[in-house]
Task: inverse folding
């Protein structure tokens, strides 16, 4: 099950649940809320991958029959071993569901004894309130409410999200309410309104996370054509940025760069939207860095993008631009400048209250140490500071990359140790001779 | 009940999380138990003990207490918020009163021993009869057959000879063939109670039989209780019998109303001393409960502030003790982290543990830290927010500003039930502190103040 399909905010939620459940020897309870069952499936997959294997209880077929419900729990209790339990199908009971929730509420002591392992009750978001009120005692036992229905506090509005990057720092947090309709067949025919076209872009973004490239492309072209037709220039910029994101996701960085540079940035300028212009240029700098063209990236960031930030108030974007600049400066060996940039980045990340960007800054410090030959310190910084933060915020991709770097550094340290031993042996041999 | 025999205080936050249990009351001698009587606002269990006829001597040495004048019959209610510590306190009361100079305490945990879904008075009374018979058999108490023969006769006539339950009763008797006398009767009643818990077909039949022949059953049960009290007194096991029933507070809505209001006369037809746990909402919904039951003992929330807003130090001390016995002080980055959790628990023990659990999940290092604590408060508040309607915020602000005014009692009862409003001693209310952090509440208060 691919965690890549989950937004960061959901991964963070699930990470916290794993932390709570992992230590439990007996019964523990959490509620999971979702809108689309695909999200629930991905979440369970993520928990299986990073938490524990599980037993799934589908109570859909026990509709209205509490004794059948009991039998399902009893069977799960016999099979569960040291796994966790996920209860699904609670939403399929008849409206009101009083019997179900009251039954669970009354059976909770029995439930805790019968299924003496961590358990998640998955409930569709609109039914949660009923579940809480009808089974309030059970609710008060819960350790956590895992929200994979939306990206909670980190969700951004469509306007701010339009200027957020398609970052390699993890997926942009997105409001999944807007994706609630994604199980529908893609509808790419001409539709009409701005919101309809924005919806196509939303669906394309989702398709990208699912690696459904063809669907994403069809949706984006439909959106771009439609937006051009109605003269929605800003919306056009947003759609084309997502198209660049699609090129990049497919591995075609040159196509992504060409699109942004030759088309999107001028469209953003024509739309008179400084935020979008800045965001697109930051996307370009990021792609240049990814292509190893650090000089160009550094110039763009230092001379164009960062000065523009003095006039706009986007702390996270500011920290991100500094991060990209630091990476480029390290890439071209301007270590003194890089050290200053990283310090600025650290201040910006702290001001933005963004742990992810703070970890990125510390990662850059580690890179600096490595460049200065202090591999031990780089290793410690990554292991003791950066990796725990990425794990904590649930950015699995970044955590994996850090682990990869740690392995490489480990080998480097081992080789250095070996070489050192060889030198000592040689010196000893020379002295003996 | 949580097994505390191997309990050792945790040495790190991971261990704290592992040992946190919110689904089980503490045993009477659990080292995590904290005396919260003062913290709840000078409530005194002595008042309850006195109503049960107990003359309390040295407060901490129940062996010095004596049964001065136990009532012939008494039906007490023991109520409090969900998660306020009722079950834990009932276990402690049981431990204190179950001794030769006082009572033989017969307990029933309806949540665990019965099927509490749609629990009815018949289930509880049959189970109490079973538990009394089992206790007598276990203690080796002999009772003259004349006194339990009536109950045995009731079983024979009403259950063994009833067409619908005949074969089941025969199975029970066959299964207990090595037994005789009281142990046999205990075994038969255990079978009946098990059928009520697990067998949907027999459940309704058995309930119907009890209902249709209730006078006979009550008379037989009363005869047994009287004889058992005499026998226990003679055997030095207790001067009287006290029945403590936990789990009946878990009932909601119509079920609770049926048990405590509609069927109260059936409960009171059994002559004995009873203490039933009760949902707090019942007291607010049915003022007549006070008239039907002998007494009502309310277990209020632990009080962190007085009604006038002054800090209540005893409450803070108890909550700190409660917290530090589960998560030693050294595991908090700073003292104000613990205080932040306590302040936002509202003095509600189970919510404090919930906050601690979430703060653990959000901590970045090896200590409970302030960002984690704040995150925990926000998450708990978000949970409560899901229970609230837009109209509730003005109501909450009004209650906090004018606690003595009249308010929409129907909604207040629901919000009390859902812990959005907490009840403190002398019976005043305050909005849960986590709810007070919600922007909609704050906005409402500003409007109110403005």
Result:
């Amino acid at each position: 099950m691919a965690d890549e399909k989950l937004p960061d905010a959901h991964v963070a939620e699930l990470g916290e649940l794993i932390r709570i459940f992992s230590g439990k020897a007996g019964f523990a309870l959490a509620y999971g809320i979702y809108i689309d069952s695909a999200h629930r499936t991905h979440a369970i997959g993520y928990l299986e991958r990073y938490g524990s294997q599980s037993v799934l209880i589908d109570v859909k077929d026990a509709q209205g029959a509490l004794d059948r419900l009991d039998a399902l729990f009893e069977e799960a209790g016999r099979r569960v071993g040291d796994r966790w339990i996920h209860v699904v199908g609670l939403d399929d009971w008849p409206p009101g569901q009083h019997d179900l929730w009251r039954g669970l509420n009354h059976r909770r002591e029995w439930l805790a004894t019968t299924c003496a392992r961590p358990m998640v009750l998955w409930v569709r978001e609109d039914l949660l309130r009923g579940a809480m009120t009808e089974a309030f005692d059970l609710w008060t036992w819960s350790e956590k409410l895992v929200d994979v229905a939306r990206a909670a506090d980190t969700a951004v509005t469509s306007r701010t999200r339009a200027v957020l990057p398609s970052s390699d720092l993890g997926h942009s947090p997105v409001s999944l309410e807007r994706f609630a309709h994604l199980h529908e067949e893609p509808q790419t025919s001409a539709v009409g309104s701005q919101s309809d076209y924005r919806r196509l872009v939303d669906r394309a973004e989702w398709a990208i996370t699912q690696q459904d490239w063809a669907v994403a492309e069809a949706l984006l072209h439909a959106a771009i054509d439609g937006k051009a037709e109605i003269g929605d220039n800003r919306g056009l910029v947003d759609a084309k940025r997502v198209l660049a994101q699609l090129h990049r996701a497919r591995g075609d960085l040159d196509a992504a760069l060409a699109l942004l540079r030759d088309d999107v940035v001028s469209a953003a300028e024509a739309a008179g939207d400084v935020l979008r212009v800045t965001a697109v240029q930051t996307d370009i700098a990021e792609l240049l860095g990814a292509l190893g063209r650090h000089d160009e990236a550094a110039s763009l960031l230092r001379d164009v993008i960062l000065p523009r930030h003095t006039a706009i108030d986007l702390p996270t974007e500011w920290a991100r631009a500094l991060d990209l600049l630091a990476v480029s400066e390290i890439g071209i060996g301007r270590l003194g400048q890089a050290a200053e940039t990283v310090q600025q980045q650290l201040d910006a990340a702290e001001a933005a209250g963004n742990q992810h960007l703070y970890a990125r800054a510390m990662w850059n410090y580690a890179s600096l140490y490595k460049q200065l030959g202090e591999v031990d310190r780089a290793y410690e910084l990554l292991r003791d500071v950066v990796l725990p933060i990425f794990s904590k915020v649930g950015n699995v991709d970044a955590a994996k990359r850090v682990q990869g770097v740690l392995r490489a550094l480990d080998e480097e340290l081992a080789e250095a140790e070996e070489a050192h031993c060889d030198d000592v042996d040689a010196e000893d041999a020379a002295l003996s001779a | 009940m949580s097994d505390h025999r191997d309990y050792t205080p945790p040495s790190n936050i991971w261990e704290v999380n592992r040992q946190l249990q919110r689904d089980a009351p503490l045993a009477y001698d659990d080292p995590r138990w904290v005396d919260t009587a003062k913290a709840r606002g000078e409530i005194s269990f002595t008042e309850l003990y006195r109503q049960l006829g107990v003359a309390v001597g040295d407060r901490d040495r129940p062996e010095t207490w004596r049964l001065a004048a136990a009532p012939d019959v008494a039906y007490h209610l023991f109520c409090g918020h969900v998660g306020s510590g009722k079950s834990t306190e009932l276990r402690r009361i049981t431990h204190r009163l179950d001794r030769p100079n006082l009572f033989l305490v017969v307990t029933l945990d309806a949540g665990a021993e019965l099927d509490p879904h749609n629990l009815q008075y018949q289930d509880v009374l049959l189970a109490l009869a079973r538990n009394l018979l089992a206790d007598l058999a276990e203690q080796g108490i002999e009772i003259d057959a004349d006194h339990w023969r009536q109950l045995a006769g009731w079983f024979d006539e009403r259950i063994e000879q009833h067409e619908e339950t005949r074969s089941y009763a025969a199975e029970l008797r066959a299964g207990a063939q090595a037994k005789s006398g009281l142990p046999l009767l205990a075994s038969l009643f255990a079978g009946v109670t098990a059928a009520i818990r697990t067998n949907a077909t027999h459940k309704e039949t058995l309930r119907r039989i009890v209902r249709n022949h209730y006078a006979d059953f009550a008379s037989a049960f009363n005869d047994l209780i009287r004889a058992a009290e005499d026998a226990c007194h003679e055997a030095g096991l207790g001067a009287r019998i006290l029945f403590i029933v936990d789990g009946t507070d878990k009932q909601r809505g119509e079920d609770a109303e049926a048990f405590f209001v509609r069927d109260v006369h059936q409960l009171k037809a059994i002559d004995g001393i009873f203490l039933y746990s009760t949902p707090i909402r019942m007291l607010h919904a049915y003022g007549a409960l006070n008239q039907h039951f002998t007494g009502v003992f309310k277990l209020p929330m632990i009080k962190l502030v007085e009604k006038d807003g002054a800090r209540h130090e005893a409450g803070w001390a108890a909550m700190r003790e409660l917290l530090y016995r589960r998560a030693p002080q050294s595991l908090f980055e700073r003292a104000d982290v613990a205080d932040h959790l306590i302040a936002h628990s509202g003095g509600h023990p189970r919510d404090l543990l919930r906050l601690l659990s979430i703060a653990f999940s959000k901590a970045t290092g090896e200590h409970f830290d302030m960002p984690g604590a704040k995150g925990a408060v926000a998450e708990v508040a978000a949970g409560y927010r899901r229970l609230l309607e837009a109209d509730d915020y003005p109501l909450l602000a009004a209650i906090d500003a004018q606690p003595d005014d009249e308010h929409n009692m129907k909604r207040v009862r629901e919000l009390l039930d859902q812990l959005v409003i907490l009840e403190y001693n002398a019976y005043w209310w305050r909005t849960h502190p986590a709810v007070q952090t919600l922007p909609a509440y704050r906005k409402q208060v500003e409007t109110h103040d403005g």
Residues 396-432 of chain A form the longest helix (37 residues).
